[in-house]
Write a structure and sequence with these properties.
Layout: H1 6-25, E1 27-28, E2 33-34, E3 49-50, E4 54-56, E5 62-65, E6 67-70, E7 75-78, E8 83-87, E9 95-100, E10 105-109, E11 116-120, E12 127-134, E13 144-146, E14 157-159, E15 169-179, E16 190-194, E17 201-210, E18 220-222
Parallel strand pairs: 3-6, 4-7, 5-8, 6-9, 7-10, 8-11, 9-12, 10-15, 11-15, 12-16, 15-17
Antiparallel strand pairs: 1-2, 13-14, 17-18
Keywords: Signal
């Protein structure tokens, strides 16, 4: 084997370092998300507000209690095969969900054999409502708010803007369980897109409604 001189080894090392830096700054064309440092939460129950780029691994289940907001234009990346359990929260009126605020992104890219599963906890009457994505795409009004009975009392959320090609991330090979509303109330969709731009990628998503006793209803598939 030929041993490289110190000068050649230094040149190779610098070239590799440049390649790594370039890869870290390269945009993912499938998601519109620029790769960056991701933090894995220490606790398996997610904090009510996620304000930094976060990775949920498939090494163990994760838990959402009540409402969890992804803000500060952060990215939430979820590995294929990850399971996220939704737990009831009486302080949230028995409701709960994951809310992706304007500018933030969810990157949940499951695989056909390793889907990502947002599932209802089997403890008590769980009012998990699903995922709400709030984007910056053009609406009839340039900027508006969303209020719904399923949100915590007094809460409203801003969405919309003037960026038709905005990306709120990707949901691919994902199953979302959610609790269907009681008869006579406004339907809860399981996945609600408000102001999501054209580059938001929704592909092979199964919406799986349940009644309050946990019995399965008819699935819906997106797209």
């Amino acid at each position: 084997m030929r041993i490289l001189s110190n000068g050649i080894r230094l040149s190779v090392a610098l070239a590799l370092a440049c390649a790594v830096i370039t890869a870290c700054e390269k945009e993912d064309n499938n998601t519109g998300v620029i790769n960056d440092v991701l933090t894995v939460p220490i606790q398996d129950t997610l904090q009510p507000v996620i304000s930094e780029n976060t990775l949920l691994t498939n090494a163990h289940p994760w838990y959402i209690r009540g409402w969890v907001y992804l803000g500060n234009e952060a990215v939430l990346k979820i590995e294929p095969g990850t399971v996220i359990n939704m737990c009831p929260d009486e302080e949230a009126g028995g409701n709960g969900g994951l809310i992706i605020t304007r500018g933030a992104k969810i990157v949940a890219q499951g695989l056909p054999q390793l889907p990502i599963h947002f599932q209802r906890s089997d403890s008590g009457n769980n009012g998990w409502r699903g995922i709400i994505i709030l984007g910056r795409a053009t609406q009839q009004k340039a900027f508006t708010t969303f209020e719904h009975e399923m949100l915590p009392a007094g809460k409203s959320l801003a969405y919309g803007g003037n960026e038709p090609d905005d990306s709120s991330g990707v949901l691919q090979h994902v199953q979302i369980d959610y609790v269907a509303p009681v008869k006579g109330k406004q339907p809860t969709p399981g996945l609600l897109l408000l102001g999501a731009g054209k580059k938001t990628n929704i592909n092979n998503v199964v919406l799986h409604p349940l009644n309050i006793n946990g019995a399965s209803l008819n699935d819906r598939r997106l797209p």
